[in-house]
Amino acid sequence: MAALGWLTPRRRSATARSVLAGEASAEAARKSTQEASGTTEEPQFPVHGDDRAAAFFDLDNTVMQGAALFHFGRGLYKRKFFETRDLAKFAWQQAWFRLAGVEDPEHMQEARDSALSIVKGHRVAELQSIGEEIYDEYMAERIWPGTRALAEAHLDAGQKVWLVTAAPVEIAQVIARRLGLTGALGTVAESVDGVYTGKLVGEPLHGPAKAEALRALATAEGLDLTRCAAYSDSHNDIPMLSLVGHPYAINPDSKLRRHARQLDWRLRDYRTGRKAAKVGIPAAAGVGAVAGGTAAAIALHRRRR
């Protein structure tokens, strides 16, 4: 029988290396079975019940096709807030900015002053009311269903969801409320006794300013940014995306797509049949008021003549 001893299982104490090998083998078998059955699971995200997490969404070309300022400008022009000569001036300023591709401080200040002159003397409540109408007229049908589903997933998980945009905060708040989101961070125009003065409070909420807004809100809300998510289409928002633990590139421009791939950020593209550079009307990055919308409005007006 001794010759058959090799058939008898030997009892040996498992070493750390053998335990590791066994666990690795079991995990590989489990994954293989899941992949074969199409049930591969990813860690749950967003995490349900995590009240120190939130989600931040850029607006233009991320949540909505095109720029909020473009649609807002159409609505204001329709309501005769400005004349054709004003439109021509704003159109030239916006064209210069887009062609030059740089933010000259003196020129950008002139563009902001011109844009803010449109709303100077008007009541905040008036613009808010008009914003509700403009949302129904031009914006509601331009919300990306895919991005809206992402926002709703965070809401369903019990997390707060904020828009973060260079558009006027009054317009951003209308959009956030209509989508059932928590609120909005946007460019703030100064008002006294409910009337616009024609000045900004600080600067447009663009680029690095968005990142500062997230930091401030996270402190006020007790959020852990490493557990938060941010979504944007633009390389200008890399400072904001870099702050959070879960950055997403949504309908990304070429620079953001390249950056996201280098850092292994997640990408989502809800467009069909178009290149990133050809989708929508870019926001007036750095103008932060109505100049982008008025520039587009004059082009629209000319096409209809």
What does this 3D model show about the protein?
48% of the residues lie in helices and 13% in strands. It is of the alpha/beta class and 305 residues long. The chain has helices spanning 16-37, 68-78, 84-100, 105-119, 124-139, 145-156, 169-178, 208-221, 238-243, 254-263, 291-304; strands spanning 54-57, 160-168, 183-187, 189-192, 195-200, 229-232, 246-250, 266-268. The strands form 2 sheets. The chain has a 6-stranded parallel beta sheet with strand order 3-2-1-6-7-8, with helices on both faces. The chain has a two-stranded antiparallel ribbon with strand order 4-5. Helix 2 (68-78) packs across helix 11 and helix 5 packs across helix 7. Residues 1-13, 97-103 and 273-305 have low confidence and may be disordered.
- Helix-strand pattern, N to C? HEHHHHHEHEEEHEHEHEH
> Which descriptor suits the 3D outline?
globular
Q: How many helical elements?
A: 11
What spatial order of strands do you see in the largest sheet? Answer: 3-2-1-6-7-8
β-strand number: 8
